[in-house]
Design a protein that fits this description.
- The complex is a heterodimer.
- By secondary structure, chain A is of the alpha+beta class.
- Chain A has 3 domains: 288 residues, no CATH class; 111 residues, no CATH class; 57 residues, Arc Repressor Mutant, subunit A (Orthogonal Bundle), CATH 1.10.10.410.
- Chain A has 15 helices and 17 strands.
- The N and C termini of chain A lie far apart (67 Å).
- By secondary structure, chain B is an alpha+beta fold.
- Chain B is 39% helix and 10% strand.
- Chain B has a two-stranded antiparallel sheet with strand order 2-3.
- The radius of gyration of chain B is 22 Å and the shape is flat.
- The model of chain B has no long low-confidence stretch (mean pLDDT 91).
- The chains are: A alpha+beta, B alpha+beta.
- Chains A and B meet through strand 2, helix 1, strand 10 and strand 17 of A and helix 1, strand 1, helix 3 and strand 3 of B.
């Protein structure tokens, strides 16, 4: 009998505001000296009062609109109480019964499956803890160090319905979600740097039976890690059930180095957050005016952008990859301004360019090759100045130096040879150097022809125009 | 009222005597709430806020916070710019 998997995701995205959710401290905390980015409000000092950042609310509403949510005309904040030193106030200001938006959905780009969005709400981030130990293991630490620079940074939490039936669907959703927040300009969605974080609920059950016990998974810091963790956990649960065991309701952490999920907490009392309405803030009323002004300011979303890219002449799959990261789509559109053949631009970006970027560990916007230079390179191919093969070499130099393609072609002497007499000379040389090949071609071995073309190209260091080479060879042989 | 549970959530250690004392206080408070609960609120919307105004909002502008020495100055223990706390189990 088969097993079915049920997965739901909870995603946190840091909002790209300049200041924190309830105070004027900067949200730019990465790499800063600890505790240099705090004030009485985010430290929860007595007598201080939080004041909502208007932009953070607008960003949350944007997300709710983009995810097809019902926007609630009234919502408010709660205190979620728990005793942990990453929260200086001993509570987190978050939302509870009435979030900013609920009952939304998102359509997955490849499988076209519709995934329900349970809710989107606003909340503040916590500080960071460091557990200094010689072993690096938290259970060996005798004390912890706290840095509150991140405390109070605005987050949206996006909770999905348990609509995923496989780890790959969950990953597809997370990538689409990241693309959406990037296109909205409300979060950079960087999982490695923690500006996008994902927890998962996973359960398995035998086909036709009721839902299994769900396990919460944490600490997946990349898309790959998410998929790996989910696959591991599904396997673990199925094995456990098959061997007559029972899945415990618990929280497990994904260990990337060990490639497994680990139960860190033993049996724990049910969480008791004692939520109550935040008395330091008043309710949020979202009226038509606010909503209309946000709706009128909505940028193009990935789904539409994909369609538009397809209408520009590139394949559906290529269009999807181009939209996974907003910056790649932006680069593509900019380059197309300089060279109108969108398909060629896309092929170059998805081929050589992404390859070089991966090798160098760079993002496309940090590349030395600018969109107009890529456009120029393709123009040089089109007008016959260089061959496609030489262009790859030129591109590689562009990637390393950032120099203009024209300059590289000139400097390296890479201009294509189109002069017939010059190519004819090389063809004759090649033919007389390969009498056996010529002989077997004449006896009917047609594929020898390509070998001979290759020899001519080699002799000209790839600079001969291949069409001219073919033409001359055909006549001479 | 499980005082022990509430104490644990707040990371407080109470002696048996303190627990008994707290239990008395808690029970007195709970009795009071029972009295409130006896009121028929069937058709009354919950009142989370007595003021029905939009919460005041601020523009997204960065303002200077506290100096680090002032922040660390109010912490009982510090180390290398961090606030040092007992490990939480």
């Amino acid at each position: 009998m088969g097993y079915e998997t049920v997965i739901g995701l909870e995603v946190h995205c840091q909002l790209l505001t300049d200041s924190k959710l309830f105070c004027g401290c900067s949200t730019d905390y990465i790499g800063k000296e600890p505790n240099t980015n705090v004030c009485p409000v985010c430290l929860g000092l007595p007598g201080s009062l939080p004041v909502l950042n208007k932009k953070a609310l607008e960003f949350a509403l944007k997300a709710a609109i983009a995810l097809n949510c019902e926007i609630l005309p009234y919502s408010h904040f709660y205190r979620k109480n728990y005793f942990y030193p990453d929260l200086p106030k001993a509570y987190q200001i978050t939302q509870y019964d009435i979030p900013v938006g609920r009952h939304g959905w998102i359509e997955l780009p490849y499988s076209h499956k519709r995934i329900g969005i349970t809710r989107i709400h606003l909340e503040e981030d916590a500080g960071k803890l460091v557990h200094p130990t010689k072993t690096g293991r938290i259970e060996h630490a005798t004390y912890s160090l706290v840095d509150y620079n991140r405390a109070g940074v605005p987050l949206i939490e996006i909770v999905s319905e348990p609509d995923f039936s496989s780890p790959s669907e969950a990953r597809e959703y997370l990538m689409e979600l990241r693309s959406i927040v990037q296109h909205l300009g409300i979060s950079d969605g960087n999982m490695e740097l923690g500006s996008m974080r994902c927890d998962a609920n996973v359960s398995v059950h035998r086909e036709g039976e009721g839902l299994g016990v769900k396990v919460e998974l944490k600490n997946m810091n990349s898309f790959k890690a998410l998929e790996r963790a989910l696959n591991y956990e599904v396997e673990r649960q199925i094995k456990l059930i098959k061997s007559g065991g029972r899945v415990e309701q618990e929280t497990r952490h994904w260990s990337e180095p060990e490639k497994k999920t680990i139960s860190l907490r033993g049996k724990e009392e049910a969480q008791d957050y004692r939520y109550f309405p935040e008395p330091d803030l008043l309710p949020i009323y979202v009226d038509e005016e606010i909503l209309e002004s946000i709706k009128s300011d909505m940028p193009e979303l990935p789904a539409n952008r994909r369609k538009r890219f397809v209408s520009m002449g590139i394949g559906e799959k290529e269009a999807s990859i181009m939209v996974i990261e907003k910056s790649i789509g932006d680069y593509f559109e900019e380059a197309v301004k300089y060279f109108g053949d969108a398909k060629s631009i896309a092929n170059w970006i998805l081929g050589d360019f992404l390859g070089e970027l991966n090798r160098a560990g760079l993002e496309i916007q940090d590349s030395r090759v600018k969109p107009h230079q890529l456009g120029r390179l393709l123009t040089l191919i089109k007008d016959g100045t260089i061959s496609g093969k030489i262009a790859k070499k030129v591109f590689s130099i562009m990637f390393d130096t950032g120099d203009d393609p024209d300059e590289i072609v000139k400097r390296e002497g890479l201009v294509q040879i189109v002069d017939r007499s010059e190519i004819e000379k090389v063809v004759e040389e090649v033919l007389s150097a390969n009498p056996d090949a010529v002989e077997s071609y004449r006896k009917g071995k047609a594929n020898i022809f390509n070998f001979l073309v290759g020899q001519v190209m080699k002799a000209t260091k790839g600079k001969a125009n291949p069409n001219v080479v073919r033409d001359i060879l055909q006549k001479k042989i | 009222m499980d005082v022990r549970h509430i104490a644990k959530l707040s990371n407080l250690e109470l002696t048996e005597d303190e627990l008994r004392e707290m239990e008395e206080h808690f029970n007195a408070i709970m009795e009071y709430f029972k009295k409130l609960s006896s009121v028929d609120t069937e058709r009354v919307e919950p009142t989370f806020y007595v003021i029905k105004h939009q919460t005041p909002m601020r523009e997204d502008r960065v303002e200077k916070g506290l100096e680090r020495e002032d922040v660390l100055g109010i912490a009982p223990h510090t180390e290398g710019g961090y606030i040092r706390v007992p490990r939480i189990r």
